[in-house]
Amino acid sequence: MKICVLGAGVIGLTTAWCLTEAGHDVIIVDRHASTAKDASAANGGQLSYAFVAPLASPATLRKLPSLLLSPDSPMRIRAGLDPALISWGARFLLACRPAAVRETIAAQLALAALSRSELARLTQSLMLSFGLRTAGKLVVFRSRNEFDSARRAVTAKADDDGQQVLTPAECLALEPALRLDAHELAGGIFTASEQVGDCAAFCAGLTLRLRGQRNVEWVLGSEIAGPVRSGGRLVAVDTGKGHVQADHFVLCMGAASGAFAKACGFYLPIYPLKGYSITLSPAPEARLLRHSVTDMERKLVFAPLARDRHTAIRVAGIADLESDTIIDAGRVEVLRRASAELLGIDAASDIEPWCGLRPMTPDSRPIIGWSPLDGLFINSGHGMLGWTLACGSARLTADMIGCKPSVTAIGAFALRRAA
Ligand SMILES: Cc1cc2nc3c(=O)[nH]c(=O)nc-3n(C[C@H](O)[C@H](O)[C@H](O)COP(=O)(O)OP(=O)(O)OC[C@H]3O[C@@H](n4cnc5c(N)ncnc54)[C@H](O)[C@@H]3O)c2cc1C
Asked: Which structural domain range is residue 260 located in?
């Protein structure tokens, strides 16, 4: 079969690879002249297989007024009365129910486990080099309430997945790069098995392997203007370089997926959640992080990333409900100040500021499955965990298109489950 992958971010590229492995002819279309130029370019670098809690939760709901009104908040709305945001927001409120959160965590953990084994398989079989390392992840909590509920969740787990509950002093001993006083922390959770890796370097390596495949065609530098239908079926996409035809299409257009779905005649609840990163490179020797660190209160992640001959520190976070990709110096300053405070790194220049749009669904679960339009499959909406979940989502996509049975509960990711 000839399958056209719409979008060449980490989701489109992994999807394209799994489809070629399954023996399909693949065409990859993207508006940029090269791959992974949008949300997959400079994300937090965390492969977060154990921490998959959704943004929508009773705790977020409780904190929503202060989150949206405080000027220093990691979350901001600038969209005004955007009707798309209103319907997304209504679904977000429904997804805050405890039962919905439990369902999401179970589904995401299964997809994360599949992703981990698929990433290991691809890394090994394609000899990809992107600084993949089992660095372990330390989540530090400043709020006693948040720490207590996280601690209860760890101790209630039936399976021993190696998570450790730490006192403030133990957190600082484990990660000497942290320039915090013990009294500033309530405690931490350390997960030794979590990984880090450079998503852009992974995409570059995968692009090279795809370029070596005879059954892969590229249509880059071509904006997809809309769908071309015939007899109620998607038969082509209209691009600046003419119509691109295929038997099936897979929608992997990240935060732009919702607009394409709308042009196809159905609603896809994916809204952009703008985030920022800075990269401190090379990291000063004494401030080198041994593990990746998440500051739960500030919703910021710090990851040590291997780059050529040195280690850099990627600092990422912020969740603004905005759809432009203009870098706001004030938001970059939040990350710079946090690096100075947490790691003692006072970076004045060369911090490589970047922003990207996370494709967010209301319940934070990706949408993977056939769309209401014949011929169009969806693999999009991976939100805050697209790097973590890419390889498993691609496997699931190729299996579903090939009508193969899957070990993962596919109903949990179907479009119709989205509230
Ligand atoms: C600040 C930040 C930190 C993050 N940290 C992490 C992390 O630590 N761990 C983690 O797992 N995830 C993280 N993420 C999330 C992750 O980066 C995303 O979920 C993931 O990159 C989404 O990939 P994608 O391929 O769906 O989208 P994208 O990478 O945005 O790719 C979509 C592609 O579609 C193309 N496209 C869109 N519209 C059109 C059009 N009309 N015509 C042609 N082409 C089009 C774009 O050019 C783009 O190449 C982070 C995200 C951000 C923003």
From this structure: 2-136+193-417
Residue 181 is assigned to a structural domain of this protein: no
Q: State in Å: Cα 45 to ligand 1 middle.
A: 13
Strands (E) located in 105-186? 137-141, 163-166
Q: Which residues contact 12 (CB under 8 A, 6 or more apart)?
A: 5, 6, 28, 30, 35, 250, 252, 253
Kindly report the CATH number assigned to the domain that includes residue 235. 3.50.50.60
Q: What are the phi and psi torsion angles at 42 (to 5°)?
A: -145, 50
Task: Please report the atom of ligand 1 found closest to the CA of residue 8.
Answer: 49
- Which ligand 1 atom sits closest to the C-alpha of 301? 8
Pocket residues for ligand 1 (CB within 6 Å)? 7-12, 29-32, 37-40, 43-46, 48, 223-224, 252-254, 256, 275-277, 301, 316, 356, 358-359, 380, 382-388
Phi, psi of 225 (to 5 degrees): -85, -30
pLDDT tens over the chain, length 419 residues:
999 999 999 999 999 999 999 999 999 999 999 999 999 999 999 999 999 999 999 988 888 877 777 777 778 877 667 888 899 999 999 999 999 999 999 999 999 999 999 999 999 999 999 999 999 999 999 999 889 988 888 876 656 567 899 999 999 999 999 999 999 999 999 999 999 999 999 999 999 999 999 999 999 999 999 999 999 999 999 998 899 999 999 999 999 999 999 999 999 999 999 999 999 887 666 568 899 999 998 899 999 998 877 888 999 999 998 899 999 999 999 999 999 899 888 766 678 999 999 999 999 999 999 999 999 999 999 999 999 999 999 999 999 999 888 777 789 999 988 54
Burial class (CB in 10 A: 0-12, 13-18, 19+), 198: buried
Atom 19 of ligand 1, residue of closest alpha carbon: 386
* 256 Cα to the center of ligand 1, angstroms: 10
- Which residue has its alpha carbon closest to ligand 1 atom 33? 7
Give the number of domains in the chain: 1
- Within a domain: residue 197? yes
Distance CA 151, CA 162 (A): 13
Query: What letter does residue 374 receive in the DSSP assignment?
Result: B
Using CA positions, which residue lies closest to atom 4 of ligand 1? 43
The answer to the question of residue 271 being in a domain is yes
Q: Is residue 200 part of a domain?
A: yes
Residue 38 alpha carbon to ligand 1 centre in Å: 5
Closest C-alpha to ligand 1, atom 16: 386
The alpha carbon of 170 and the centre of ligand 1 are apart by a number of angstroms equal to: 35
